[in-house]
Each structure stands twice: as structure tokens, then as C-alpha cells.
């Protein structure tokens, strides 16, 4: 999974270009970029990431991203970290059929209907909508029966917020 080491700062001015992608990864073409860490870069727009059609691991944590639509063109993503952004909708993620690990804590996911978009991801095993200590939570995490409803929406899930599906939350109503 993603390592949380000190991330270099790139001067991206809120968005990333194809030339930026090439320079950051030292690759001559976005099609041969398999792993990309753009955490903590103050990114608002990620449109050009759609040119990285073979991405497997993408880290976009700690940015200012609100739209995930460009990711629909990166169907090979397996590991995706979108923690601490401005995300309130999951449009684009339903195309990521290889995705098995998704971090979304610290965003603005409010309703179960939003999470229903993840139901088509049959390989999704691990989802974080808050940290294991119940901090950095999306608004949906405060909703009654949050865990049960999320497991119901995302049938393939095995772990939610770092806790296995079999765990019984003492704070949740039965």
C-alpha cells in the first residue's frame, strides 16, 4: 500500500499536465506510468491523469481534488488513495474494475447513495471512509448503521476503516 514518507513538492499550480507527468516519473510517455504519487501537491484538477491508462497504484492524498471523472480512463488502477480532498461524489470510480484498495477518509461523502456507485467494483476488498480511530471521517460515517449499510452497498468488501466485516461495532445499533 502507499508509504507515507515525505513527499517532494512539485510546482504544479493546481493542475497537472502531460509534461509534468513525464518529468515527475522520468517516463517518455504516460502510457508506461504504472505508479504515481502526487500526494500533497495542492492539485485541484487531475484531467491529464486519464492519459496514464496503465496506472496500477495512484496516490492523490492531501490535495484539493473534487472531481474523479478523469480516473474512469484508468481502468487498471488497483490501489487508490484519495484521502483528504474535497470529494463529494464518486463519479468515475465505477469504471475501475481492478480496484481492490480505496482510501477516501477526510472527504465529503454524505450519503449511502454515493457509496452505491462502488457496488459494481467486484474486486474492492478494503475501503477507508475514516481512520481506524474514527477520526478524519466523512459525514456518512456519522449515520446510523453506517458499517452495516456500507457492507450491504459494497458486497465484495472485506474490511471497512481497517476493521474486518465480522467485527461488531459496540457503538452501532443492531
Summarize the structure in words.
- By secondary structure, the chain is largely without helices or strands.
- The protein is built from 3 helices and 7 strands.
- Helix 3 links the parallel strand 5 and strand 6.
- The chain starts with 17 loop residues before the first helix and ends in a 10-residue tail after the last strand.
Uncertain spans: none
Q: Could you give the order of the helices and strands? A: HEEEEHEHEE
Rg, rounded, reads 16 Å
> Strand portion, in percent?
5-15%
Tally of DSSP helical segments: 3
Tell me roughly what share of residues is in helical segments: 10-25%
Structural class: little secondary structure
Q: Overall mean pLDDT score?
A: 91
What does the overall shape look like?
Answer: globular
Question: In total, how many beta strands?
Answer: 7
Describe the sheet with the most strands: 7 strands, mixed
If strands are numbered along the chain, what order do they take across the biggest sheet? 1-2-3-4-5-6-7
What distance separates the N and C termini?
A: 33 Å
